[in-house]
Known about the structure:
- By secondary structure, the protein is α/β, with parallel strands linked by helices.
- The chain contains 13 helices and 16 strands.
- The chain is 35% helix and 20% strand.
Amino acid sequence: xxxxxxxxxxxxxxxxxxxxxxxxxxxxxxxxxxxxxxxxxxxxxxxxxxxxxxxxxxxxxxxxxxxxxxxxxxxxxxxxxxxxxxxxxxxxxxxxxxxxxxxxxxxxxxxxxxxxxxxxxxxxxxxxxxxxxxxxxxxxxxxxxxxxxxxxxxxxxxxxxxxxxxxxxxxxxxxxxxxxxxxxxxxxxxxxxxxxxxxxxxxxxxxxxxxxxxxxxxxxxxxxxxxxxxxxxxxxxxxxxxxxxxxxxxxxxxxxxxxxxxxxxxxxxxxxxxxxxxxxxxxxxxxxxxxxxxxxxxxxxxxxxxxxxxxxxxxxxxxxxxxxxxxxxxxxxxxxxxxxxxxxxxxxxxxxxxxxxxxxxxxxx
Length: 365
């Protein structure tokens, strides 16, 4: 078999590109994945109790782009779930992102929009030049809310203090001056009715796509004939870590099944205090499954394990730029996705990037 394309990684980037190349350009695609399953970190399925769980933590597809929503919707129906998150403080749970409801519950008094704005104006700390994740938060909401919601949580999540992390870590956390308790304000959001794994199975269901699981691409790159290479794994590994290893933060998941229908008020509750774990997910909120039992998942930031998040520091960015420059000099090789681009990307952003790469391939050949 001569393949038109070898795609490394069967997550969002790899499967979207495999689907597009196979179905739009009628190309023969070899899709390899070193894990035992497709769908990347969105992988889900039934646990031993018959409860649908997401094996790598909560995943909710959300986007503001209709064309991305429509594309992914070709392979699934959505269950209508709207994501809401609470933060468990010492004596109460409050809504995230911070909004009027959060402030009223936190301070046990009413807040209007104007009062909330005035509250923040009095507490913001001027920062001449935003240099790190802490600067972002204190310049927006001051040190009190920073200590309550962000300092410990960020340190647990990343294994670094906020002062050591790039500003984009906390720029993703908005403040709202209304009573919108949705975690995402994107107009399109939800969880696939029959799960992410089924979505991916439909996406790559083509006679033009050959899937090989538990396969490292190096084991086939030298033996199979192919034209183009699309790589979605860690970019430093592609170059044998020639300039040094790029750090990736991992997560440890501990699942627990309880003999009750509901454990907590929301699908995800963050724990910004002194607990070892960062958050607890109860999947039945997300999947809308009816079951007499419930499975929850504790998450712990980890230095070792499967790479989940690029670690956003200035030193790591400079190291990545060395690899990126080398990657751009290659002919016929595309680097796509969170690990390959060393960037924290939401699922819709990865899909958008994959579709853009497909258009480049279709246009330029």
